[in-house]
Design brief:
16-stranded antiparallel β-barrel, DUF4595 domain-containing protein, 1 helix, mainly beta
Length: 275
């Protein structure tokens, strides 16, 4: 289930913060435990509920399609402080979505489920590789067991600064071509807030949106179609914060370079104190 209401505009949403005193002094770690409770966009809202230990229990996705309001949700299962399973609800019916398979502390496979004659069983999966302790490649394996494409990631410090997408050329040679390259810049004085929750909930929920696992807050991204070196997309993000340091809003400006068309939308955030 592709999470269309997320994407880069909401890459820094799960946030624990401590308020400052009236004079703008140092944070007091024992005073507050702010967690995002709601992300609001023009026609979509994402709502969070929490377990007693402060981990995310469920995400509710509400969207508007014309005059019709649609909703679905995803439940997060935890074991030993880490996510092990994602289940989705559609029309109130729970069904398996994906299982996280670990090697040590690293998720090495995201195993998706699909409907079959007897219910639901394993389908395609994402194979994840690591280098120097960081995620380095994500390979997409379809239901037939064939690799269709993969991402190669470049890190600068603790931020992903380049994502290269290689795709199968389907000419029978099993050759992969570099199709797209996305480069990212960051606000190095702002934390990547999506990283501050245990289990990287939004990374897994939002179909592995890469900037969720970077240390800092993304400022811009540029997508280039590599066969022609043509710039296709540019995204710029403007963030506002409360005096307590909580992310209040993100304005996303997306430019379709080829069509010379720009769109802009705003995401707003509400929080709950789990102290």
């Amino acid at each position: 289930m592709k999470k269309t209401t997320l994407g880069l505009a909401v890459l820094t949403l799960l946030f624990t913060a401590c308020s400052k005193d009236d004079k703008g002094g140092d944070n007091n770690p024992g005073e507050h435990n702010w967690q995002v409770s709601r992300i609001m966009m023009a026609h979509d809202t994402l709502r969070f509920t929490y377990n007693a230990d402060g981990t995310v229990h469920k995400l509710y996705d509400y969207s508007q399609d014309g005059d019709e309001y649609l909703s679905d949700s995803m439940e997060i299962a935890w074991e030993g402080g880490r996510i092990i399973r994602l289940s989705e609800f559609e029309d109130g019916v729970k069904r398996p979505y994906a299982e996280l398979i670990y090697d040590g502390n690293n998720v090495v496979r995201l195993q998706y489920y699909r409907e079959n004659e007897t219910g639901y069983g394993p389908g395609g999966y994402d194979s994840i590789r690591y280098a120097n302790g960081k995620m380095s490649e994500i390979h997409y394996i379809n239901n037939q067991g064939d690799r269709s494409s993969y991402h190669k990631l470049t890190w600068t410090g603790d931020n992903i600064t380049k994502d290269e997408l290689y795709a199968q050329n389907f000419d029978g040679t099993n050759t992969f071509m570099l199709m797209e390259e996305v480069t990212y810049t960051y606000h190095t004085d702002k934390p990547g807030l999506g990283k501050l929750t245990s289990g990287d909930v939004l990374f897994w929920y939002a179909d592995m949106e890469l900037t969720h696992i970077s240390a800092n807050l993304v400022a811009s991204s540029v997508t280039v179609y590599k066969p022609t070196e043509q710039e296709r997309w540019r995204s710029d993000y403007t963030h506002t914060f409360s005096t307590d340091g909580l992310l209040e809003s993100t304005v996303t400006k997306e430019t379709d370079v080829e069509a010379d068309r720009t769109s802009e939308y705003t995401s707003k955030f509400e929080y709950i104190d789990l102290k």
